Automatic annotation (TrEMBL):
<dbReference type="InterPro" id="IPR032675">
    <property type="entry name" value="LRR_dom_sf"/>
</dbReference>
<dbReference type="InterPro" id="IPR001611">
    <property type="entry name" value="Leu-rich_rpt"/>
</dbReference>
<keyword id="KW-0963">Cytoplasm</keyword>
<keyword id="KW-0433">Leucine-rich repeat</keyword>
<feature type="compositionally biased region" description="Basic and acidic residues">
    <location>
        <begin position="45"/>
        <end position="58"/>
    </location>
</feature>
<feature type="compositionally biased region" description="Basic and acidic residues">
    <location>
        <begin position="81"/>
        <end position="90"/>
    </location>
</feature>
<dbReference type="GO" id="GO:0005737">
    <property type="term" value="C:cytoplasm"/>
</dbReference>
<feature type="region of interest" description="Disordered">
    <location>
        <begin position="45"/>
        <end position="95"/>
    </location>
</feature>
<keyword id="KW-0677">Repeat</keyword>
<dbReference type="Pfam" id="PF14580">
    <property type="entry name" value="LRR_9"/>
</dbReference>
<protein>
    <recommendedName>
        <fullName>Leucine-rich repeat-containing protein 51</fullName>
    </recommendedName>
</protein>
């Protein structure tokens, strides 16, 4: 009976650790070391690794083909109109092919250019091609070693680069940035299991309270932030986020969970919590 109890007791912990490790070893969409300051800059960068969403890319290819087909039809119509005008001009006195060739000067545009040359109403037009935004299918996102000052807009940006991010993303690395706050946009990632926030500039321990609303969060890192200087900060984090299994790459024991409930009495933020409850 005792052996059976022990095996059942740790069965849940083993499954959580195994799933967390599986997420960490998954190939992440890597935007690290890009020297980005604002989250919006992610759209301007190319990730190092990532699995392209074939459904999304094929849909965009189909749309682009339809656009190109429509433009080609317009070009053919404009060329036909231009030929008709040229034939009329040739029939008039004082006009010949040499004069027409000299009058029509076509701008030279490199093949690799982001601009596209075509005719519109018989007039040469140069338009800038729209940058194609490819979506990826990934469970992990690495944004470490940048200079992010805020996470505001991360939810909107990930929707543009990742297929169904709020359902798929379960691992986000935001370590080694300049974050002072935890923006509430992170709460939209309801399936988030692992979050790395170590080596940032979070100085208010109450910022951690927001993460309690992530029901599936099991692993969290906060070391290397100014909050480390706060007395009993580890106990505070364990108490405020009871669903955690690991903190700063160290497993949370049953004794620590019990101890955190006792330490809240001497916690300097206890009074702040009472004020917010009224």
């Amino acid at each position: 009976m005792i052996e059976g109890y022990k095996s059942n007791k740790y069965e849940n912990v083993k499954s959580v650790v195994a799933s967390s490790w599986g997420v960490q070893t998954a190939v992440p969409l890597d935007y690290s070391f890009k020297e980005m300051i604002e989250v919006s800059e992610i759209l301007e960068e190319e990730p190092r690794l990532g699995k392209i969403d074939q459904t999304e890319s094929s849909r965009k290819k189909k749309i682009n083909k339809e656009k190109d087909k429509a433009k080609n039809e317009e070009d053919i119509e404009s060329e036909n109109e231009e030929k008709g005008e040229n034939e009329n001009k040739e029939s008039q006195p004082g006009w010949n092919k040499k004069n027409i060739n000299k009058a029509l000067i076509i701008p030279m545009v490199p093949i690799s250019s982001t601009y596209k040359y075509h005719h519109k109403d018989g007039i040469p037009v140069i338009e800038e091609n729209e940058k194609q935004c490819v979506k990826y299918v990934n469970r992990a996102l690495r944004l470490s070693n940048n200079n992010f000052l805020s996470l505001e807009g991360l939810d909107v940006i990930t929707e543009k680069i990742i297929s169904d991010p709020f359902k798929n993303l379960s691992w986000i690395d935001l370590s080694f940035n300049s974050l002072e706050q935890i923006h509430e946009c992170i709460l939209r990632f309801e399936n988030l299991k692992t979050l790395f926030l170590h080596a940032n500039k979070i100085s208010k321990i109450t910022e951690i309270d927001k993460l309690a609303k992530l029901p599936n969060l099991k692993s969290l890192t906060l070391h290397g932030n100014p909050i480390e200087e706060d007395r009993n900060y580890r106990f505070y984090v364990i108490l405020m986020i009871p669903q955690l299994v690991s903190l700063n790459f160290s497993g949370i024991s049953k004794q620590e969970k019990i101890g955190s409930k006792g330490c809240i009495v001497s916690n300097p933020h206890r009074n702040d919590k009472k004020k917010r409850s009224y």
